[in-house]
Design goal:
With about 140 residues, this protein is mainly alpha-helical. The chain has a single domain (about 15-135), classed as DksA, coiled-coil domain (Four Helix Bundle (Hemerythrin (Met), subunit A), Up-down Bundle), CATH 1.20.120.910. About 70% of the residues lie in helices and about 0% in strands. Helix 2 runs antiparallel to helix 3 (about 60-95). The longest helix has about 35 residues, at about 60-95. It is elongated, with a radius of gyration of 20 Å.
């Protein structure tokens, strides 16, 4: 199959769910997302190192420390996201990717397209969020 045709491929409801082509599509999507996050993390680290070089002014130093705290929180979120991406890649390998971990039903392709790390179908996610709200409101 020509590379150009493969680039324009989009999973469709008309083909068997999680066939090899769909699994490869989502694997490529997840790997590209992970690479983008790692690239941003490297840039952030470089930025923090550059910023740290010399701040003689106390206000500059305080501002830099605030920026650093924000960057480190963002890095922590990125680290957690990478763990979820790695878990999704493992599910592709073991054949469970795309299926709701609560019901075993297929997760819609539209949901996976929007959130490739999803582990719950929309219905199961909504139930989960409702339960969370109930317990949070207690």
């Amino acid at each position: 199959m020509p590379a150009q045709k493969e680039k324009s491929y989009r999973p469709s409801e008309k083909e068997p769910f999680m066939n090899e082509r769909q699994r490869e599509y989502f694997r490529a999507k997840l790997l590209a997302w992970k690479e983008e996050i790692l690239k941003e993390a490297r840039e952030t680290l470089q930025h923090l190192q550059d910023e740290n070089q010399n701040h003689s002014d106390i206000a500059d130093r305080a501002s830099s420390e605030t920026d650093r705290a924000i960057e480190l929180r963002a890095r922590d979120r990125q680290r957690k996201l990478i763990a979820k991406i790695d878990a999704a890649l493992a599910r592709i390998d073991d054949g469970t990717y795309g299926y709701c971990e609560e019901t075993g039903e297929p997760i819609s392709l539209r949901r996976l397209e929007a959130r490739p790390i999803a582990t719950l179908s929309i219905e199961a996610q909504e139930r989960h969020e409702r339960r969370e709200r109930i317990y949070r409101d207690d």
